[in-house]
Amino acid sequence: MSKIGVFICHCGENIGATVDCAKVAEAAASMEGVAFATDYKYMCSDPGQTLIKNAIREHRLDGVVVGACSPRMHEPTFRKACAEAGLNPYLCEIANLREHCSWVHPKGDDTTEKAIEIVHGLVEKVRRNSPLTPIHVPITKKALVIGGGIAGIQAALDIANCGHKVILVEKEPSIGGHMSQLSETFPTLDCSQCILTPRMVEVAQHPNITLYTYAELDSLSGFIGNFEAKIRLKAKSIDESLCTGCGLCTTKCPQKKIPSEFNAGLGRRTAIYVPFPQAVPNKPVIDKEHCTHYRTGKCGVCEKVCPTHAIRFGQEDRIINEQVGAVVVTTGFNVLGTDFFPEYGYGRYADVITGLQFERLASASGPTLGEIRRPSDGKVPEKVVFIACCGSRDPAKGIPYCSKICCMYTAKHAMLYQHKVHGGESYVFYMDIRAGGKNYEEFVRRAIEEDHVNYVRGRVARIYEKEGKLIVKGVDTLLGATPVEIEADMVVLATAGVSNQGSEELAQKLHISYDPYKFFAEAHPKLRPVETNTAGIFVAGACQAPKDIPETVATASGAAAKVAALFSQPDLVREPLVAVVNRSAPPVFSTCVGCFMCQTACPYQAIEREEIKDRSGKVIKVVAKVNPGLCQGCGTCVAFCRSKSIDLQGFSNQQMFAEVEALLETTN
Amino acid sequence: MNTGFYPGCSLNGTSREYNESVRAVAAELGLKLTEIDDWNCCGATAAHSMSRELSVALPARVLALAERQGFDEVLVPCASCYNRLSVAAHELARDEELAAKVGAAVGMAYSGKVRIVNVLQYLQEHAAQLLPGKIRHNFAHRVACYYGCLLVRPHKVLGFDRLEDPQSMDGMMRAIGAEPIDWAFKTECCGAGLSVSRTDLVGKLSANILGDARDRGAEAVVVACPMCHSNLDMRRTAINKCLDEPTDIPVLYITQAIGLALGLSRKALGLQRHIVEVKLQ
Amino acid sequence: MEDKKRLSIKLAEDIGVDVSRCYQCGKCTAGCVLAPDMDIAPSFLMRLLQTGTEKADARVLGSTAIWLCLSCENCVARCPMEIDLPAIMDHLRELSRTGGRVNEKARPIVAFHKSFLDMVKHNGRTYEIGLVAEYKMRTMRLMQDVDIAPTMMAKGKLNIVPERLKDNGDKVGRIFANTIDKKD
């Protein structure tokens, strides 16, 4: 015979004005198994909690039902109160009388009757509850950071500075990411390289960081605190221990016409190359796709000239295993190319470039050494048109969202152009100027007021080339929609920020969610912005959505803090609301028949195979076993199990049926 | 493949050289074209400017006739007719209520079985493979391929070539030895819809087109639309008024250019009917 | 009695176009070959429709822009929101005409369309000499194109006698009777 206490909260007027709380308590008192029932104005307040605690002690209650707001709101509060009074917290349940009743119905007897039914259902459930204990899982205190842009660099340094080991994996030959390609940065115009390269060096020298460049994640298994990562180290075709980074090979390589990724296609590189002079590590790799030796076997110049004999043509990819406790995904973003835009020439015009290419033109480390010269003939453009929202906010051909960073970098580009080309004319075609951010609006105003950038509100319908000029057909919507035609020397498209290539495959490897645009999804857009739905895997930076540098760094530090918090615990404590496959005495062992349908259904890879062996070690039976570290308690396996051998702790079939039956019973 | 032929009013009137040259090229290549019996006008710009139902009903009758007469596809050389027939077929398939009204108005139903092809599609699909052995002499001229609006837009309905900077006509021209130029007005409207009522505007729009073609060194403009042709050819006086320097650049139908390469006579191709003389061989 | 419903609502009901989707980027105007000659440029016309006032609606229906639109479809081809402006223009023309709001300056354009359709109604096909003659009578532009006609005639571009469908009244005639000439 159970002794359950029922506590009905008025929630001020939220419940009390609609539901007759005293009547609910009175009805509850006569329910089977209820030893005590009462109501109170604010049950979550200190006197309310004390009331519950005292009742538990006084009446030796073995179950509690609190009729109050949503369990999402105060379940932890009341469970904690019960625990303080010596009751197992999982013997406390919440009947949601607010969201499920008082807020959605008018005042009246029917509403009070519904409240009584809801309480009755929970009473029947609690009668079947059993005490549960939290699950403890060990933690490997080493983090894996995937992607070595500014987000990955920041996250790796923060975690490493907390005293934990970090593995940083970057697929390109150097870390640095897009930020290393930028010239100056808004809104302060400080040089991107000057603020970034010291951090790149710090990563390389940090005793807690192991850096793998030219490497990619092959697979990830395991669960929070206990992941196993397989990392593919792509063959660089050099022996890094011998290479001194003297650069002789890169100057002698005869294959010199490969478009440079670092210069966004505006410059050329060799087949054996270091992406840029400030690269970390500053040692070359051989691009097998373009190298003459790999293509025809007829070259070997680098091997001949290398003073330390570090070239290794026969080197192969290596796979290494790393045990890690947490993963931070910082794989960044990409921008659409000019070929994406039919009306802007399908990428045919050399002087129609992307914003990223303009960064390279404006950068001191770029192909023009920071002079603004147009790609076609190297002339200094006298008139430049910048077009915002190229592909962004364009559901028809591009992406419906705002890429967020373009308004600011376009203002910066126009400003840099005005600073570098005196007497030059610049036009920005825009729809809205989105300059929300510290000192951002002031920055845009400065471009307009001090640097005399001509802002024209309207989109550009098309661009065509005529006699060495680019004819830009736009509109000024603020002049009553007047068509505007500008003969420009160069056009810069602020092309949409999109998810990086391969992000979908990576998300599938990691079992994390992604949105329709293939950006990684956070667990909650506001309250859990750097966590994913998979415990122990965090995201930061522009792989979530286009982000500027401050926001990228902020999320990276946020993710690092989450990792540090995880690693600060001796082990992991998790809610015991997980699935369990039943076990019984020999010779049955379990009613599980080993069909493993559950394994195919589980979205978290939480179901393992357990071999039951006799004393001689012979396998008698193979049954399913749920890994409580991975299980998220979704219950899919329970529904799939044909022999009804799986139950969800805290939400067992028995409990749920009792609750539902109680609801049906009172209705009839 | 049973290909029906829908000339439309223009090809029997002001643009009969288009009709003549399409038939001449098809005959030279041994391709059979059967004219749809009892066809009517598609309604052109006037119908869709005045009444949506009428603009669908007139082409619907043509399509229903083609279906009844057992054609798998209909060649519609006039870009305007091609556009109106395609849009009507699209609307009939999309809007059941409209289809019912139109069916009742016409007195014949159209079930959507006939494929509507424009002259470029027809040439690509039927003539391209026959050309190599038949070319007598290359049409070795720099040409500006002018597609106009009606062949490529609305792109979602027509699904033909690419929206901006289409290439199918350029490809055909290369196949007969011509050199298509890269220019800026391939798909800009020449204003034909206002040819009679606002000749002033048409002169300006067409001047942009001919001016750009001339400036980039084209010897001829090649078209696949009788509206564009009559505009660019017959309205030359109005056009030249809008140009800094008058131009005598000839405007040829694609079938006339191909016909010349096939060695057909100028008369068979109706070249003598042009207002602006065609001197090209 | 004149229909008092706002144009934006009519457009949504009759042809399924939602004018509120336009965010005024102006790309339609930027690419429109006739925008500089219109009294109301396409994107501005969209804005007037969005305001939904009686005054704005009247301005739209009485504009010359709706009659100048050539239906070249450049606007919708490039519109980031794929708003079917040509369909809007077609419908506005129909509403302007049936509501007796046609702008004085656009009368020749309407006259041309009417003359064209008259030819089709009576013959089943168009017939240029008849068309131009009727258009001239409607607009009293008697001297237009007198210079070009003899040349066209000489080059065999004009038919003297119209092509006519046999029993056209039962064919194209009935289509007109059941659509544009229908009396509700």
TrEMBL record, chain A:
Q: Which domain of life is it from?
A: Bacteria
Residue span, 4Fe-4S ferredoxin-type domain: 234-263, 282-316, 584-612, 622-651
Q: SUPFAM superfamilies per the record?
A: 4Fe-4S ferredoxins (SSF54862), FAD/NAD(P)-binding domain (SSF51905)
Any transmembrane segments, and where? none
Cofactor(s) this protein cannot do without = FAD
Q: Does the keyword Amino-acid biosynthesis apply?
A: no
The UniProt keywords, alphabetically, are: 4Fe-4S, FAD, Flavoprotein, Iron, Iron-sulfur, Metal-binding, Oxidoreductase
Q: Name one Pfam family in it.
A: Fer4_7
Question: Which family would the database say this protein is a member of?
Answer: Belongs to the HdrA family.
Task: Identify this protein by name.
Answer: CoB--CoM heterodisulfide reductase iron-sulfur subunit A family protein
Automatic annotation (TrEMBL), chain B:
Q: What is this protein called?
A: CoB--CoM heterodisulfide reductase iron-sulfur subunit B family protein
Establish whether keyword Zinc is in the entry: no
Q: Any idea which UniProt keywords this protein has?
A: Oxidoreductase
Gene Ontology molecular functions: oxidoreductase activity
Transcription keyword on record: no
Q: Where is the Cysteine-rich domain?
A: 4-85, 143-233
Which InterPro entries does this chain map to? Answer: Cys_rich_dom, HdrB/HdrD_reductase
Tell me the domain of life: Bacteria
TrEMBL record, chain C:
**Which Gene3D superfamilies does the record cross-reference, listed alphabetically?**
Alpha-helical ferredoxin (1.10.1060.10)
Q: Which GO terms describe its molecular function?
A: 4 iron, 4 sulfur cluster binding; metal ion binding; oxidoreductase activity
Do you know which InterPro entries this protein is assigned to?
A: 4Fe4S_Fe-S-bd (IPR017896), 4Fe4S_Fe_S_CS (IPR017900), HdrC_iron-sulfur_subunit (IPR051460), Helical_ferredxn (IPR009051)
Q: Which UniProt keywords apply?
A: 4Fe-4S, Iron, Iron-sulfur, Metal-binding, Oxidoreductase
Where's the 4Fe-4S ferredoxin-type domain? 19-83
Source organism superkingdom:
Bacteria
UniProt cross-references to Pfam families, sorted A to Z: Fer4_8
* GO (cellular component) term, any one: plasma membrane
PANTHER family noted in UniProt: IRON-SULFUR-BINDING OXIDOREDUCTASE FADF-RELATED (PTHR43255:SF1), IRON-SULFUR-BINDING OXIDOREDUCTASE FADF-RELATED-RELATED (PTHR43255)
What is the name attached to this protein's record? Answer: 4Fe-4S dicluster domain-containing protein
Organism, by scientific name, is Marseilla massiliensis
